[in-house]
Each structure stands twice: as C-alpha cells, then as structure tokens.
C-alpha cells in the first residue's frame, strides 16, 4: 500500500481529474487555432501551452513560493509590469499620423468605447459584481493588454476568462464586424470615397505623445501608466534619434513580454477557475461588447456622413474598436468590395489608433472609481 501511495505522488495521471483533462484539451485547441488558423498565434500558443501545464498535477510549477508560473504571474502579471511593457511596444509600432491628419476621427474612436459600458451594464444585470463587470466591459475596447491590466487590478479571479475572450474575439474581428456594419449602413454610404489625408509634420508627431501624456495625466491620472507607456514608445519612434531603442522595444522587448503574458494568463486557466458557467457568460458578453462597440462607432460615423454632406464614409467608425490594425483592414476590405477605387485604410486607422487611447482612458476611469 505504501508503494502505491508513493506511486500516486509521483505519477501524474493517477491524480488527473476529468476537469483537468478538459482544460488540457482546451489548451490544445488554442494551440491548433494559433498554428492552423493563425488566430492571434503569438498569444494563443503560449496561453494554450501554459493552460496544459497548469492542469497537469503534481509538477509544482504553479505552487507558491517557487513555482515558475506562479512567479511569472506574481511578479510580472499581477504587478502590471508586462501589460505596460506591451503598451510601450505598441506605442513604438503605432503611427498616429492618420489621427493627427484628421483629429475629428478621435470622436469615432471614443464612440466605439460605448461597447465597454453596454457590456458592463449587461454584466451587472447578469449578476457580476461591479469590479468584475468593469473588467468584462473593457473587452469591448478590443485591446488585450488594457483588458488584462484592468482585470488584474479589479477582478483577478476572472483574468483567465477575460483574457481569452479579449484575444480570441480580436482574432474574430473579420467575422464579428461585417454583419454589424452592413446592418447599420446603406450601400450608398458604403460607397463613399474619401479625400486623401493631409501630410503631418514631424513636429506634430513629436509633440503629440508629449502633449497627450500631460493632458491624460492631469485629467485621468489612473490612465497614465497605460497611456504614458504608449506615448513614450511612440516618442521613441517619432523623435528620430532613438532608433536603436525604438527597434528594441518593437521587437525583442515586446516579444519577451508577449511570451510572459501568455504564460501568466495560462496560469489562471486552471480547471477550478475556468470550467464554470461564469466563464461561458464572460465569453458571451465579450461578443456583445465587440458588436455594440462596432455599432457605436458606425452610428457616429453615420452622423459624420450627414454633417459632411456625404463626404465621410460611416464604415470608418467601426475601426474605433482598437483591434489595430485588424478592424481598419475590415473597413478597407468592405470598402473595396463596394467600390474598387475606395481606399479607406488610412482613414480607418485614425479612429483605430484613437480607440487604443480611448480604451486606456476608460480603464483608468474604472480603476479610479472602483479600486
């Protein structure tokens, strides 16, 4: 009997429950989606593999105080270090010129954030507490690092489900958005060809991240960690004298941060935390958040269409969900389908990058009031 007891402590499959088997299968599905279907592979593959590891018993890799994945989560995810480093990389990779060339498109990015508040309200109605509802609502911002940052601060218990919803639906933007856009626009509106954007000066590009950081820091201080890192990365890109730093942030740093982000999120995907009705509800609310965010941007786009006497294509409002650059590409593809001469990509990139700032500010507001 003692021999059997020792074997039970050493052989993992003797301690494996059916719930853990299900989670291992789910982890495998994430890996397949990343490899075969190229759905956010840079994150779904690390998340999927980490989900497999944390549901294999007896390894100690998730246990305090020295388990590796425990350390990754405690010191890199729960401290918000990794989401902030990823925002630094995003800033260095983002070109804000389309937004600067047509500043009114910032309003389209802001309008798309309405999905955050609709999803938050729906979550409250479904019985989630206010902190959980806020973390779920941020999924509508279509910004993975912001979602993880907010959930880590406000509702760490649902981080795994919220992160999976955010990143899986970001990869499904080309499926979720077109039906919403078509339902809210006419063929005539989708056919609108917009004039080329003006050229933005280097001085404007350099001043933008500095001024934005100061304004956000004064108005919404709790959003400054996210927006500040985003703008610092952009300053490295645009100033012209820190090319080495910019390239490092865009490549090595963000790649390392992405690996640890995936492992840290996977750490939260244990069978106990993930296999419940609450997870299903979060996934459904994620779809609702994306759809209503798209609708909010398109509806304001329709108002712009009317006010401009038909010179603004309302579809560009859909890009206000900050899935950069996927939602802008959706708008471009739909525009070309309606009219082969219709080049909307740069016009859509304005609200697209504005959405990144908008979702970060929304997260800051939630954190300020709820933490």
The main pleated sheet reads as: none
E-strand count: 0
Roughly how many Å apart are the termini? 52 Å
Please, how many domains? 1
Which labels suit this protein?
transmembrane; cell membrane; lyase activity; OadB_MmdB; mainly alpha; 371 residues; Sodium ion-translocating decarboxylase, beta subunit
Report what the structure shows.
- This protein has 20 helices and no strands.
- It is mainly alpha-helical.
- The protein has one domain.
- It is globular.
- 50% of the residues are buried.
- Keywords: Cell membrane, Lyase, Membrane, Translocase, Transmembrane, Transmembrane helix.
- InterPro entries: OadB_MmdB.
- Its EC number is 4.1.1.70.
Topology:
Blueprint: H1 2-10, H2 18-35, H3 41-54, H4 68-77, H5 81-93, H6 97-101, H7 105-112, H8 114-125, H9 130-137, H10 144-154, H11 159-171, H12 173-184, H13 187-190, H14 202-219, H15 224-238, H16 243-267, H17 271-274, H18 277-307, H19 326-338, H20 345-370
Give a short summary of the structure:
This protein has helices spanning 2-10, 18-35, 41-54, 68-77, 81-93, 97-101, 105-112, 114-125, 130-137, 144-154, 159-171, 173-184, 187-190, 202-219, 224-238, 243-267, 271-274, 277-307, 326-338, 345-370.
């Amino acid at each position: 009997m003692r021999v059997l007891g020792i074997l039970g402590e050493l052989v993992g499959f003797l301690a494996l429950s059916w719930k853990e088997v299900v989670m291992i299968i789910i982890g495998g599905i994430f890996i397949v989606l990343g490899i075969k279907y190229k759905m956010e592979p840079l994150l779904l593959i690390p998340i999927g593999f980490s989900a497999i590891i944390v549901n294999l018993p007896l390894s100690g890799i998730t246990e305090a105080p020295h388990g590796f994945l425990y350390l990754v989560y405690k010191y890199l995810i729960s401290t918000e270090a990794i989401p902030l480093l990823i925002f630094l990389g995003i800033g260095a990779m983002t070109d804000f010129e389309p937004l600067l060339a047509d500043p009114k498109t910032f309003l389209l990015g802001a309008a798309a954030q309405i999905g955050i508040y609709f999803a938050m309200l729906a979550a409250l109605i479904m019985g989630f507490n206010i902190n959980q509802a806020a973390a779920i609502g941020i999924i509508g911002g279509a910004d993975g690092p912001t979602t993880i940052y907010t959930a880590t601060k406000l509702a760490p218990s649902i981080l795994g489900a919220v992160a999976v919803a955010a990143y899986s639906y970001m990869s499904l933007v080309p499926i979720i958005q077109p039906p919403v856009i078509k339902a809210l626009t006419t063929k005539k509106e989708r056919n609108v060809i917009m004039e080329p954007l003006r050229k933005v000066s280097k001085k404007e590009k350099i001043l933008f991240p500095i001024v934005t950081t100061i304004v956000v820091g004064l108005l919404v201080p709790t959003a400054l960690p996210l927006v500040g890192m985003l703008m610092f990365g952009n300053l490295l890109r645009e100033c012209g004298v820190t090319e080495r730093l910019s390239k490092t942030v865009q490549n090595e740093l963000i790649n390392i941060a992405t690996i640890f982000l995936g492992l840290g999120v996977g750490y939260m995907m244990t069978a106990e935390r993930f296999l419940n009705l609450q997870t299903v509800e979060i996934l459904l609310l994620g779809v609702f958040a994306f759809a209503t965010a798209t609708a909010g941007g398109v509806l304001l786009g329709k108002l712009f269409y009317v006010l401009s006497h038909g010179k603004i294509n309302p579809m560009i409002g859909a890009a206000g969900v900050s899935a950069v650059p996927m939602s802008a590409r959706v708008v471009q593809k739909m525009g070309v389908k309606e009219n082969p001469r219709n080049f909307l990509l740069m016009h859509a990139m304005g609200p697209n990058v504005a959405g990144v700032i908008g979702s970060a500010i929304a997260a800051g507001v939630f954190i300020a009031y709820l933490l």
